[in-house]
Amino acid sequence: MDETMTLDMTAAEASQVQALAERCLTAIRESNERARQTESVMITLQAETRALLDQLRMRLDVEATR
Question: What one-character DSSP code corresponds to residue 2?
Answer without folding.
Answer: -
